[in-house]
Amino acid sequence: MPETRVRQRLSREDRYSQLVDVAWHIIREEGTEALTLGHLAELAGVTKPVVYDHFTSRSGLLAALYREYDQRQNRKMDDVLAKTAPELAARASVIATAYIECVLFQGREMPSLLAALAGTPELETIRREYAVDFIGKCRTLFAPFCGEPLRDAPLWAMLGAAEGLAWAAVQGAISELQAKEELCAVIIAMVRATLPRG
């Protein structure tokens, strides 16, 4: 990471992005326990009030990192989906691949970030926001292939499968390829279950 201790005048948006980047660096290099607003201010070359102005608390900072991760995951999915044929298997593969790859890319950082947020109101809020957004995206994406509208329960089950498979891949219990293939199969089965039998 480039040296950031020299004070620079940045726009509010650029300063926010810089602080998020430095926070991820701290988590990667020193662990989540080392991520305090004071330490972030020191490494970013700003005063503590600047960091507090952006995040208000350590939980607020951790929640901001979770949201940044979620937005990055969504951008990656959207970019690939824009170039994907409008076919069930192709779209299911994109969703499965993007979900698993994003979790694996964040690897060690996300589980420790989630552990640090555990029990906070911020975590419950952002996890629900993320889940609702992801389910809504999948409902819209797979609607053309469904015989009837997707119900909430199968969509929540699919999200649970995605989270479980990603966790297993991070832990090394299954391979990345196994996680992607299984999640893709779960999505296809969920959609096909809406088609008339016979």
UniProtKB/TrEMBL annotation:
Q: Which UniProt keywords apply?
A: DNA-binding
**Pfam families, sorted:** TetR_N (PF00440)
| Superkingdom classification of source | Bacteria
Q: What positions does the domain HTH tetR-type occupy?
A: 13-73
The feature table lists the DNA-binding region at 36-55
Q: Does the keyword Lipid biosynthesis apply?
A: no
User: Which InterPro entries does the entry mention?
Assistant: Homeodomain-like_sf, HTH-type_TetR-like_transc_reg, HTH_TetR
List each coiled-coil range.
none
Please state what the protein is called. TetR/AcrR family transcriptional regulator
Q: Which organism is it from?
A: Kosakonia sacchari
